[in-house]
């Protein structure tokens, strides 16, 4: 069995679902990496130094400084979490721990569920977060619209896991094949924030069990605490903590939106 290649990677991230996808992937693959905390609350992601890494001004991103096979220096940037996860598996997962061999049926299924999450679950739950937690006006239509769509997508995952359970091993089911892959990590990173969108994931039995299995993994626990401890679930245990957490995050979300409106409105 081949060992993971040595890597020299810098991760630019923040403690969000998308950021956690990247750090969990790195932790699961056992790759050494340096962390740069991009303080979204201070709009660091819109500063020129970061825009050179990701022109869209969003986290996560990596810069891979690992020399080429012939020893030449290089700095390869990768932005967008889905692209980043595929890149890390292609370059640093020779044993296919988190993906399958290229061009197998399972490989393309992983890609399908990764893109499904990137184009559906992430954006829809992100909007549910916004209308439920951040919007200065509580617009019932917006809240219901995006919470309902998020629940519909959770049901798609529930149905997928039910289908997979028919042939699953004792530690399954998983989204693709008989083990956890980046398809699971990508979707987990958003489902794990369900309560922040005002959604009770416990109404989805298999999805809840899948969520618990992933949360129990040591590498996942480490990845969730990058670049700082993940406190959302603990904060939501009390009304005071919930209000404090919401006020802090709402402040920087709305500040960033105002800056974008001033520049692009």
Defining traits:
265 residues; alpha+beta; 4-stranded mixed sheet; 10 helices; 54% helix; globular
Write the SSE topology:
Elements: E1 9-13, H1 17-29, E2 33-37, H2 48-51, E3 61-64, E4 76-79, H3 81-92, H4 105-134, H5 140-165, H6 182-191, H7 205-215, H8 218-224, H9 232-235, H10 239-264
Parallel strand pairs: 1-2
Antiparallel strand pairs: 1-3, 3-4
Helix pairs in contact: 1-3, 1-6, 1-8, 4-5, 4-6, 5-7
What would you note in describing this structure?
By secondary structure, the protein is an alpha+beta fold. It has 10 helices and 4 strands, in the order βαβαββαααααααα. Strands 2-1-3-4 form a 4-stranded mixed beta sheet, covered by helices on one side. α1 links the parallel β1 and β2. The model has no long low-confidence stretch (mean pLDDT 94).
General form: globular
> What is the makeup of the main sheet?
4 strands, mixed
The quaternary state of the protein chains shown equals: single chain
Strand and helix order = EHEHEEHHHHHHHH
Strand content: 5-15%
Euclidean distance between termini CA atoms: 55 Å
The count of helical stretches stands at 10
User: What's the count of strands?
Assistant: 4
Return the structural class: alpha+beta
Residue windows where pLDDT falls under 50 for at least 5 positions: none
* Residues in helix, %: 40-55%
Q: What is the rounded Rg?
A: 19 Å
Mean pLDDT rating: 94
| Main sheet: strand order | 2-1-3-4
């Amino acid at each position: 069995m081949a060992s993971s290649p040595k890597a020299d990677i810098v991760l630019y991230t923040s403690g969000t679902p998308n950021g956690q996808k990247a750090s969990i992937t790195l932790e699961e693959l056992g790759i050494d990496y340096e962390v740069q905390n991009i303080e979204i609350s201070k709009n660091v992601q819109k500063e020129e130094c970061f825009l050179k890494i990701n022109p869209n001004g969003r986290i996560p991103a990596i810069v891979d400084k690992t020399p080429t096979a012939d020893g030449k220096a290089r700095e390869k940037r990768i932005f967008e979490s889905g692209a980043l996860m595929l890149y890390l598996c292609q370059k640093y997962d020779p044993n296919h721990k988190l993906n399958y061999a290229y061009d197998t049926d399972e490989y393309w299924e992983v890609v399908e569920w990764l893109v499904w999450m990137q184009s559906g679950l992430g954006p829809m739950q992100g909007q549910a977060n916004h209308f439920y937690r951040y919007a200065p006006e509580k617009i019932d239509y917006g809240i219901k619209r995006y919470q309902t769509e998020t629940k519909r997508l959770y049901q798609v995952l529930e149905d997928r896991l039910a289908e997979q359970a028919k042939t699953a091993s004792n530690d399954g089911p998983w989204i693709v094949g008989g083990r956890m892959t980046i398809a699971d990590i990508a979707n987990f990173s958003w489902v794990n924030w369900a309560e922040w969108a005002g959604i009770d994931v416990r109404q989805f039995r298999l999805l809840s069990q899948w969520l618990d299995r992933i949360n129990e993994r040591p590498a996942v626990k480490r990845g969730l605490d990058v670049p700082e401890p993940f406190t959302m679930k603990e904060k939501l245990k009390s009304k005071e903590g919930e209000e404090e957490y919401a006020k802090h995050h709402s402040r920087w979300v709305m500040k960033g939106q105002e800056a974008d409106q001033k520049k692009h409105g």
